[in-house]
Amino acid sequence: MVQKFEFQELDLKGAYLIKPFYAMDQRGGLVKDYNIDTFRANGIEHNLKETFYTISRRGVIRSTHFQLIRPQPKLMRCISGRVFHVIVDLRPKSETFGQWRHFDLRGEAPVCLLVPAGFGQGYLVLEDAVMSYKASEVFCGEGDSGIMYNDPDIGIQWPFDLIGGEDKLVVSEKDLKLMSFQEYIEKMKQ
Q: Do the beta carbons of residue 76 and residue 46 sit within 8 Å?
């Protein structure tokens, strides 16, 4: 069985859901989730500069993260496990500013999410998971930022029931101190 790349642009302009190249035979399978020529042929400029992974246990929530300096577009894929992945359009001049979409990403169903510059992204880990990040900008610590996972103005509807309730969340100290969406709006006016 061979599955070729398929690209679906989302209603949040610049974001894509991508089915990677996938080949399977009696030995197992091969997944190719990035090819610069294939991406360019589909109108996507994503020049890979950095690759990293997160390893998270069930209940971990990674709030809406982004970089204010040198925004970091990312091609993301769940390698193993399962996450409820969210993207938020944080581009102030965008028609979809402040809107979010969610995706059920699973290791056994290879699909990628292209998160463009100017978007925030985060996820709730539903099963112990490994997430792959392929970024087209190098991480910039002084520009690292985010918005609280429970911000009422963005209003993400996290499926806490799938981890046994909100009291089962594992939240980093850093994420507990993130800004609100209103603080983000004020910061962008400066």
A: no
Q: Which fold, 49-189? A: Jelly Rolls (2.60.120)
CA distance 146 to 67: 8
Other CB atoms within 10 Å distance of the CB of residue 97: 15
Return the residue matching tokens 């190249």.
21
Catalytic site residue from 16, 22, 65, 149: 65
> Rounded to a whole number, what is the largest CA-CA distance in the chain?
58
- pTM beyond 0.70: the answer is yes
- Per-domain residue ranges of the chain: 49-189
85 included as an active-site residue: no
pLDDT tens string 91-101: 999 999 999 99
Q: Is 184 a catalytic residue?
A: no
